[in-house]
Amino acid sequence: MKLYTIAAGLLAGSMLLSACTANFDDINTNPDGMTQVTPALLATNAIMGIVRPNSNKSFIQHMLTTKHMAWYELLEESTQYNNFGRDGFGIYPTLRNYTAMEELAVETYQDQKIVSAYKGLALFLKAYRLFNLTISVGDIPYENILMGAEGPEYLTVPYNTQKDVFRFLLRDLDQAHQYFVEADGASFAGDPVLDGNSAHWDRVCNTFELRVLSMLSMKEDDPDLNVKAKYAEVAGRDLLRSNDDNLQLEFSSKEGQLYPFNETLQSYKQYAMVSTTVVDVLKEYEDYRLFYYARPSDKRTEEGISADSWDAYVGTDPSDPFENIMAKANSRDFSILNDRYTDAGNPAGEPFITIGYAELCFNLAEAALRGWIQGDPSEYYKAGIEASMRFAADNTPDNANYHHNRQITDEVIAATLDNPKIQLTKDFDHDLYKIMEQKYLAGFMQIPYLTYYDYRRTGCPEFPINPESNRNVFAPDKIPMRWMYPQDEYDYNKANIEEAVQRQFGGSDDINQLMWIVKE
Description:
Strand order of the largest sheet: 1-3
Shape: globular
Number of strands: 4
Number of helices: 20
Helix content: 40-55%
Distance between the termini: 27 Å
Strand content: under 5%
């Protein structure tokens, strides 16, 4: 998944403050002037660091883990067939940059509102990074993660329990929210995504905090966390209001800014088989997103079946043994990604969402179902479906190759929301499944790994598991529950990592162990 560690980052040094990446990151840099480390430059790098996805084949590999897709180029053991390996902790220089951004803002600006905006951004970014790390592996260093800045004698960073990590996450996100409130709408420089709008960042921060709290669904009775009350408190703040508020990266035809899976950047598009977990459900519900997500089977269109027919679309079971996947590929009776994601004539593809409105609606639906907030779960749920459908429609050119003459219109959305098959029924298990199923469909090609983490805590929607093909050898009837810690932690931080593994998993750092947030 990732390749570097905290310890390796420390050994590499802490002076990577202005390490720019190409293309998108040139936005705020004057090519005729000397590059100087400023809060704005660090903000640009930091924001791009969380919104910019991988490109080429790496862009879609998380879709194999979440079973949105199958792949027939090569045997993808680690993603499609669940042979989870080691995660990486290569975030120390990144976290140090956030601190440097805040420190430089204090030195640079007299306007305390701007300083507060940078402080809020720094804390939000730190929480975002460390949240993604802890839900991948379990316990992590949090409280003293920047000790390495004090010198090489502090390379061995202690681990916090995951419960404490979540307490720190919520504390830091609350403080980030407070800073954004103190910024009082002031704008900061260096933001290529939201134009430095501190009020907009507050909505993003609060929406993300609800994501964090949603991951604590199995800990709602923990008196130290008081998840229900905290969720209601955060839900009462300013949140994303529509797709227009999404924290997302938009692409274009400019060099270096193409959609990451555009065919001019890669030669893999033909291998991306849309899975049965997507195709079959969309067909069952007669949901027009099918015609935007997938391309019809070549075999069926050659047989005369129209591209606007539900029968033209064929999913692939990603748990099928690889030889069966190859046989299906040779038959040409399967659906690949819609051309709108890959076509050279559509270089912008669609925006890539990091934190979005549709996800928020589904999180609120789940919270209402659990009794954490007031309101009708069905209203939030349907708002999420509508947001997902409008996102697809609004980001797709009017080209028959991209919607196959099944355009999503207001009338189509209304019919989808009225479909008896998608309705909630006030039965908790049924309704939770429906909410998670629609959140899963909305996550197609978006927000890496989120639907896997939802599956891990809820069991919804059901992921295909085939013991014959599953590379999770010690539990062939299960999806792994975590990634292992990186080897470099054992090399450089041995005592602390071994203590954390012993405390959590009885000394066994393997992919089927349950971390604290998913233990009953």
